[in-house]
Design brief:
The chain is mainly alpha-helical and 361 residues long. The chain is built from 15 helices and six strands.
């Protein structure tokens, strides 16, 4: 659910795509406020409520860590990141600024980054996200002449085993479908996710503009890769049987497209109502598993699921190949042992006459 803004606070997107905040009562004058995550926001907001002038912001030291982060967040590199990555890294940088924002950024050394990893070692996923954020910041700083070298080079990730979001099973799908029949948006969301393998950020915006006959083509939001899939006629009929407004296959009750978090919450509620604690990414995993088990190659999986490298695809193809090769190998073993261990009418059960003769000699 989107964060609720304080009273009289409005947000606006600049021509550069940056979100800014203003204090405004009715149609009165607007007063620019710091970002909601900025430590100075609360004082500025309270001053506006009292009708007092805003406290003068202290100018960040041009050599400080806070200054470097602020400049990075104004860069084209930052603008290229997804909304979800913005939220995640803004939170990471907020904690860094609160703890060491006034220190010169020359203090960002390999040892300092490793200490940051150590502080987060209890939650390896957070440590990994912290390292990604610092790599992005320092890579930009080196390219723009603020740093001579990237201190993140050589910092090792914290290894941990995790299967991530749980994958759906075929039984889970049947259970969901028994709760959400044809004609409901929840059923259409499930089937679109399974048949296309789209991420939730793309399920929010997929629509008739992407469909030509039974062929669906779109450019994914996360990687920018173009995917093309063919929908079976039953899914085309399902789209036609599901009420919708506008171009989008899935929309809110107001006919507007879902936000990415909103869609995730909505589908999660539908799954829980069917007795399942799972999400749309688990459907993507099931679709990839079914494709790999059916013989799809790594490049075929990349084409459907929008992966830009074969590394992710090979997670599924290797598992499928191991299963097929394991079955094939076991059959070879069984065939080799068949002549020796198969029951024979002229011998004791379980051994052939030839093997019994060998054992006697």
């Amino acid at each position: 659910m989107p964060r609720k803004l304080p009273l009289y606070v409005v947000k606006q997107k600049t021509r550069h795509g940056r979100v800014v905040f203003y204090f405004r009562i009715g149609k009165g004058p607007r007063t620019r406020l710091p970002d909601l995550n900025d430590p100075t926001f609360r004082k500025a907001y309270e001053a506006c409520l009292k009708g007092e002038p805003l406290p003068k912001p202290g100018r960040a030291d041009p050599r400080s860590i806070r200054w470097l982060i602020d400049r990075y967040k104004e860069s084209g590199d930052w603008m290229k990141l997804s909304e979800a990555t913005h939220r995640q890294r803004t939170n990471i940088f907020k904690h860094i600024s609160e703890k060491a924002g006034d220190m010169p950024f020359s203090m960002i050394t390999k040892r300092a980054v490793e200490n940051g990893m150590e502080d987060r070692s209890a939650t390896p996923a957070q440590a990994g996200n912290y390292l990604k954020a610092m790599v992005g910041l320092c890579k930009w700083a080196v390219r723009n002449g603020h740093m001579d070298e990237n201190p993140c080079i050589g910092v090792e990730k914290i290894r941990f085993r995790s299967d991530g979001f749980p994958a759906w099973t075929v039984d889970d799908v049947a259970r969901f479908c028994s709760r959400w029949p044809i004609g409901t948006k929840q059923r259409l969301a499930l089937e679109l996710a399974l048949h296309t393998g789209l991420r939730r950020s793309d399920l929010c915006r997929v629509g008739r503009q992407h469909l030509n006959g039974n062929t669906l083509t779109m450019r994914t939001k996360k990687t920018g890769a173009q995917i093309t899939v063919e929908l079976p006629q039953r899914v085309i009929d399902l789209i036609a049987a599901t009420p919708s407004k506008g171009l989008f296959f899935l929309s809110t009750e107001y006919g507007t497209p879902f936000s990415v978090p909103g869609f995730g919450n909505w589908f999660g509620d539908a799954a829980r109502e069917a007795g399942l604690e799972k999400n749309t990414h688990g459907l993507r995993k099931l679709a990839a598993t079914l494709a790999a088990n059916g013989g799809a190659t790594a490049h075929e999986l990349m084409s459907q699921f929008g992966w830009t490298s074969s590394k992710q695809a090979e997670i599924y193809t290797k598992g499928a190949d191991r299963a097929r090769l394991g079955v094939k190998s076991s059959r070879i073993v069984s065939e080799q042992l068949g002549n020796v261990l198969a029951p024979h009418p002229t011998s004791s059960e379980g051994f052939s006459a030839k093997s019994a003769k060998i054992s006697k000699s």
